[in-house]
Design a protein that fits this description.
The chain is of the alpha/beta class. The protein has a single domain, classed as Uracil-DNA glycosylase-like domain (Uracil-DNA Glycosylase, subunit E), CATH 3.40.470. Helices cover about 35% and strands about 10% of the residues. Strands 1-3-2-4-6-5 form a 6-stranded mixed β-sheet. Strand 5 and strand 6 form a beta hairpin. Helix 4 crosses helix 8. It is globular and about 45 Å long.
Length: about 230
């Protein structure tokens, strides 16, 4: 996507994302999930469209996730929102709340009053993928959306990549912008940090139920990552 076609505002970026139809497999899956629904949400109208980022337009911190959850953001229309009590949205928001980046420790609905401070949250892929596994070409097609979003986040200084796919997506974004990356490229790990052109990339394991329920990810681990974020902002 060239400069001439780049949306002129964050609101315009949002509209472009919501109307995206580039990935037929993902659009079919999201639509079908929204039609069939989960039993506990059978009376709700699912969003079932691509999900834009949200948060503070003056943010210095970008939290970059993997993709919307089928019955979370694909239902509510807000990333890391509505995926269940104690699920990834609540885990992430509780950590952000403890660190002073959000006013609430839960994320259940777009009208829940959640306000992010100095943080913007987005995903590498904007449609819920089957089995939470987007294809490489789907990640690539979504990169222009992320490029457009960060072009309207002028204060960005830290990117927290939640998982390897998000980490690699950020590196691919830099390469797509023509920036020279080191060889070998920085490798994802929880707590890994890499500084490039004024922005610090920090890795964190994704706060999925699989990781949090098994102890792969703990609240203490996320608190440590967010302390690193604070230090990078000084």
């Amino acid at each position: 996507m060239n400069e001439a076609k780049r949306p002129s505002s964050l609101s315009a970026v949002r509209d472009t994302i919501i109307s995206c139809e580039q990935c037929g497999r993902l659009r079919r899956y999201c639509t079908e999930v929204g039609r069939v629904k989960k039993a506990s949400f059978r009376d709700e109208v699912y969003w079932a469209r691509p999900v834009p980022g949200f948060g503070d337009p003056k943010a210095r911190v970008l939290i970059l996730g993997l993709a919307p959850a089928a019955h979370g953001a694909n239902r509510t229309g807000r990333v890391f929102t509505g995926d269940g009590v104690g699920a990834s949205g609540d885990f992430l928001m509780a950590a952000l709340n403890r660190a002073g980046f959000s006013n609430l420790s839960t994320s259940h609905h777009p009208d829940d009053g959640l306000v992010l401070r100095d943080v913007y949250i987005a995903a590498a892929v904007r449609c819920a993928p089957p089995d939470n596994k987007p294809l490489p070409e789907e990640v690539a097609r979504c990169l222009p959306h992320l490029i457009n979003e960060i072009s309207h986040l002028p204060n960005l200084r830290v990117v927290v990549a939640l998982g390897r796919i998000a980490w690699d997506a950020w590196l691919k974004l830099l390469a797509a912008r023509g920036e020279t990356l080191p060889r070998p490229r920085p490798v994802f790990a929880h707590g890994a940090s890499w500084h490039h052109d004024g922005i610090t990339l920090i890795g964190a394991y994704h706060p999925s139920r699989q990781n949090t329920n098994t102890g792969v990810v703990t609240a203490r681990m996320y608190d440590a990552v967010l302390r690193s974020v604070r230090q990078s902002l000084r």
